[in-house]
C-alpha cells in the first residue's frame, strides 16, 4: 500500500514550556515518554471518564504535535483552552496533513498503538496519494477504532486501550481517572470493541442479535471488515445483524483471529475450554500471562542440565553470611566429605522428605531444639534392628506413595488458619492493587505518639487516638488443655462500672451518642462503647469514623494482651463464652466486614483466619459461612481448596451449601485442563442436587428470569424453595448475599446455566435430589443454632 492521506485526522501544535505538563493532566498515557523518536497514543476523557477523543502525541523539535479527529478538533481546542489557565502554552491549528504508509518513509514513525500496523508522518503538502478506504479496512481488521464518531462516550477499556498502548495505570491523576482506576482494580469489563468479517457493508448502529436479544451494535463497517461493541457474554456464539432483514455475520471472531502479535498471545493463554480472551478481564489476562511465563521459565530451568562449573558456583551465589577467607584451604576435604555423603544418600532417600515435612511444620523459634531432637532420633534409629528399620522405611514409603497419589500435600489446619502478620493492613493491600495512584489521606495518621508505644501488629496506631494508659483491661491464662492454652480478658472494678452503664444504653436502645461519649470521656478505650459508637456512625453513613472506632478498639485489645499470648498461634485461643472476650470477637468481625466493603479481600481473609482459629471447634460467629466467598473474591483458590480438603470431614463442610457451591466455583475458576472443568461440572452438579434452593434464590438476587423448565421443576422452582425450613433458607440467604457478584459474570453464568439444565433433564439427578431432601435437614441441624442467626445479625 502506498502513502495514503487521512482526511479525517488533523494536527494541533502545542508550543511552550508547559505543553507536556498540560497534557499530563488531561490524557490517559504518560506524556513524559514522548521523544523525537517515539510517539504515544492516548485518550482525552471527560470528568465522568468517557472518551472525548483519541490522539497520537509526538515531538517535533521543541513543539508537541497532537493528532486528533478533524470533526472534533474545535471541541478539543476548547478543552485545552479550558484547562490551560496560566500555563505557558500556545495552541496552534496546524496545516500538516496526516499521512499513512505500511513501509518506511522519510520522517515517519511507527503507529504507537500497534507496531506492525503501519507508519505515520506529517507533511504540509502531499502528492500522488490515494484514498483512505484501504486504511480503514486495515485498522478495522486489526480491531482499532478511531475518531470521535466511533469512540465518543465509551470507556477506555471498552475500546481496548489497554491492548493498544493508550493507557497508563501508574502515571498519576488526570481528568476522568477515577472510573478508569476503579475498573482496573475490580477487573469487570462487560463490553469491548471487536472486529468482524462480513459479506456486505452493515449500517452503523445496526443491532447485533443473539436469540432475539440485543447483545451489541455495529460501530463502523467497511466492505469486508467492521467493528462492533459486543457484550462479552455473547462471544463465540451464533450472532446476527439486523438491517431491515436478518443477515448472518460470517466468521465473527476475536481480535486474535484478525491480528497476530500481542492479541494472539493473550488469546492463547486465555483459552479456557470455550472461553476466550474477550470474556476475561484485562486484569485476569495480565496475571495469567505473567503466571504462564513464570511457569514456563521454571520448567526450562528445571530441564536445563547443569555443568560442573554451574553446580560448583550455585552454592556460592546463595551465601549471604560473611565470607570465610580460609574456606579455599578446605576445598579438597569438603569434596571428599560431599562424596561420602552422596554415597549414603540413596539409603536415606525415602526418609528425607518425611523428615523435612516434620521440620517445616515446626515454628522458627524452636528450630535449634528441633535440630537437637532430630540428632537424638537419628542416634536411636541407628540402634534399631533390621526388622524395625525395614518396617519404618515401608511405613514412610506408604505415606509418601499415598501423598503422590493424591497429587497434593495438604497443609495442616494449623498452618492453613495461621494469619499472616503482613496482611492485616487494608491500606497496604490497596496500595499493592492501585500502585502509585493510591495515596493515603494522611501519612502521619499511622504514627504512634512516642517511641514507647508499640505500633501494633494487627492495627497500626494513629496519632489522633488518646494515649494508652492502664484503663482496667488485662489478660490472663485461663486454662490449658494439652497443647492448647485458653486466655481471657479481665475487667477491674472501674471498667465493670462503665460496662454496666453501657448495658443501660444498649438495653434501652438509646441512639443518642451523648451517653456513649460520656463513657468514652472517662475511658476512651471502652470496647463496647466503641462498638456502639461505630454502629451510630455507620447508620449516619460516616464510614471513616466508624472504621476508626473499630480499629481503636482492636489496637487497645492488642496492647492489653498477655506477653505469653501469641495472637497468630493456632494453640493460643480465646473462648467466646467468656463475656470479657466477646468485645474482641465483635471488633475483629466488624473490621473483617469493613475490609470486605473496601474490597480488600486478602486482608479480610486474614482476619477470618484469626477469628476462626481462636475457637475453631465451636466457630461462635459462624465464620465458615463467609470465609469461602472471601477467599474466592481474593483469588485465593489454592488456599481454599486445601482448606476444603483438610477440614471437609472434621467440620462436615459438605453439609454447608456455601462450601458445596464455592468448592465447585473455585475449581472452575482455577481450571486449566478439560479434566479440571469436568471435575468442576461434577462438583456443581452435586451441589445443585444437595441444595437446589440456592439456584432459585441466586437467580432472584441477580434479577434473572429462570428457565421455564427450572421454574416448574419440583426441587429447583420457587415453590420448592418456599417449602424449606426457615433455618435452611437463612443459610441460603447468607450465601447468596455474599456470593452473588461471583456468579454474575458471563463466564460463570453460562456455566451455571449449562450444568443446571443438565440436572433438570437428567432423571438420575431427580432421584438424587429426592434422597437429599430429608438428608440436608438433618445435616444442617447442627449449624442452625445461635451462631448462624448471630452471624446474620452481625452482617
From TrEMBL:
<dbReference type="InterPro" id="IPR027266">
    <property type="entry name" value="TrmE/GcvT-like"/>
</dbReference>
<dbReference type="InterPro" id="IPR006994">
    <property type="entry name" value="TCF25/Rqc1"/>
</dbReference>
<dbReference type="InterPro" id="IPR017703">
    <property type="entry name" value="YgfZ/GCV_T_CS"/>
</dbReference>
<dbReference type="GO" id="GO:1990112">
    <property type="term" value="C:RQC complex"/>
</dbReference>
<feature type="compositionally biased region" description="Basic residues">
    <location>
        <begin position="364"/>
        <end position="375"/>
    </location>
</feature>
<keyword id="KW-0809">Transit peptide</keyword>
<protein>
    <recommendedName>
        <fullName>CAF17 C-terminal domain-containing protein</fullName>
    </recommendedName>
</protein>
<feature type="compositionally biased region" description="Basic and acidic residues">
    <location>
        <begin position="338"/>
        <end position="363"/>
    </location>
</feature>
<feature type="compositionally biased region" description="Basic and acidic residues">
    <location>
        <begin position="288"/>
        <end position="305"/>
    </location>
</feature>
<dbReference type="Pfam" id="PF25455">
    <property type="entry name" value="Beta-barrel_CAF17_C"/>
</dbReference>
<dbReference type="InterPro" id="IPR057460">
    <property type="entry name" value="CAF17_C"/>
</dbReference>
<feature type="region of interest" description="Disordered">
    <location>
        <begin position="281"/>
        <end position="384"/>
    </location>
</feature>
<dbReference type="Pfam" id="PF04910">
    <property type="entry name" value="Tcf25"/>
</dbReference>
<feature type="domain" description="CAF17 C-terminal">
    <location>
        <begin position="190"/>
        <end position="241"/>
    </location>
</feature>
